[in-house]
Amino acid sequence: MQIGIIGLGKMGFNLALNLKRNEYQVVAQDVNTDFVAKIGHEGIEMAYTVEELCQKLSGRKVIWLMVPAGEIVDAVIHALLPYLSPNDILIDGGNSNFNDSKRRYSKLKTLGIDFLDCGTSGGTSGALHGACTMIGGDPEVFDYVAKVFKDISVENGSLYTGAAGSGHFTKMVHNGIEYGMMQSIAEGFEVFEHSEFDIDFQKTAKLFNHGSVVRSWLMELTENAFAKDPKLDGIKGIMHSSGEGKWTLETALDLGVPTPVIALSIMMRYRSQMSDTFSGKVVAALRNEFGGHAVEKNE
Ligand SMILES: NC(=O)c1ccc[n+]([C@@H]2O[C@H](COP(=O)([O-])OP(=O)(O)OC[C@H]3O[C@@H](n4cnc5c(N)ncnc54)[C@H](O)[C@@H]3O)[C@@H](O)[C@H]2O)c1
Ligand SMILES: O=C(O)[C@H](O)[C@@H](O)[C@H](O)[C@H](O)COP(=O)(O)O
């Protein structure tokens, strides 16, 4: 089976190799021509434009998008449209907002193009060796490409989640959970860091992965990170985010569902990007006003 893949960054490049290993005939395109040339060296058919990509795909086209979420996904779909035929299948494997995916599904439906939204988890190593995929869209369209998802995923690592949007909705909530779990691990190690004991972080993370309740891939990655840099002295504690945690919180608020851990995890990410806060100044000033409590002054 032939598959087109658009976007050869951290995820798409590995996914293309994963598909090739599973004996799919992959045609790959990216706006970054260096990435296209690099995938060509892996023996994968290259395309420098979406037109060329579509020309190299025969029959019912299956095209996997692995580009940054947001306007780029709309732009790529728009660029593809002149070269698509009814019943061709677009799969968005990125971390798109599920509301965008519902909108894209409906718009493409009016043009006769099939659309599946696929949440893809497992990071870059998962994309290469076996991912976790959660797919929304029409069941008959899913059935047509079900084997693709099964082949590129680990055993039991692929699920048809239902109506259009549900794949990205599932991935959004997954990432909300991810925020909370990572923040919890981080806070535990912060307590160690401030304690009276000389706790070895790497050995402790390793220990926690052997028989403890909190053993997990995230804890393994914690061990890896401390193995590279025992006190993480080489990096700053600034935590960026791509949006899925925020969308999970927004959705939970819309649904009236309390999600305090996820909410605070997001707040901590935002706080980490500020060296000082205006709210801190206000509270310090108020304590000083009502109780004469000391404030720390700027130099
Ligand atoms: N990195 C991860 O661990 C991970 C895991 C799961 C899902 N995702 C999601 O997968 C998507 C891709 O992530 P990534 O980490 O590979 O990002 P990336 O930035 O490494 O790669 C994106 C690629 O898209 C290409 N691109 C941008 N605009 C394009 C266009 N108009 N046409 C063709 N190519 C274009 C870029 O040149 C780049 O090579 C995102 O939605 C991301 O949130 C990332
Ligand atoms: O399941 C996964 O493989 C990850 O969750 C993946 O999707 C990615 O690493 C996140 O996009 C990071 O999200 P933040 O940038 O929001 O932390």
CATH class of the largest domain: Alpha Beta
Largest beta sheet: what is the strand line-up?
3-2-1-4-5-6-7-8
Range of strand content: 15-25%
Please write the string of helix (H) and strand (E) elements. Answer: EHEHEHEHEHEHEHEHHHHHH
What number of domains? 2
Helix-residue proportion: 40-55%
Domain 6-phosphogluconate dehydrogenase C-terminal: 167-298
Keywords: Gluconate utilization, Oxidoreductase
EC number: 1.1.1.343
Family: Belongs to the 6-phosphogluconate dehydrogenase family.
Please give a structural write-up.
The model has no long low-confidence stretch (mean pLDDT 98). This protein folds into two domains: 2-164, NAD(P)-binding Rossmann-like Domain (Rossmann fold, 3-Layer(aba) Sandwich), CATH 3.40.50.720; 171-272, Orthogonal Bundle (N-(1-d-carboxylethyl)-l-norvaline Dehydrogenase, domain 2), CATH 1.10.1040.10. Helix 1 packs parallel to helix 6, helix 8 packs across helix 11 and helix 8 crosses helix 12. Strands 3-2-1-4-5-6-7-8 form an eight-stranded mixed β-sheet, sandwiched between helices. Helices cover 52% and strands 15% of the residues. The longest helix has 29 residues, at 166-194. The chain has helices at residues 12-21, 33-40, 50-55, 71-80, 98-110, 123-129, 139-152, 166-194, 201-208, 217-228, 244-255, 260-272, 278-291; strands at 2-6, 25-29, 45-47, 62-65, 89-92, 114-121, 131-136, 153-162. Strand 5 (89-92), helix 5 (98-110) and strand 6 (114-121) form a beta-alpha-beta unit. The chain starts with a strand and ends in an 8-residue tail after the last helix. The protein is of the alpha/beta class. Bound molecules: nicotinamide-adenine-dinucleotide and 6-phosphogluconic acid (6PG). Residues 95, 121-123, 175, 178, 241-242, 244-245 line the site of 6-phosphogluconic acid (6PG). The site of 6-phosphogluconic acid has 10 residues, from helix 8 and helix 11.
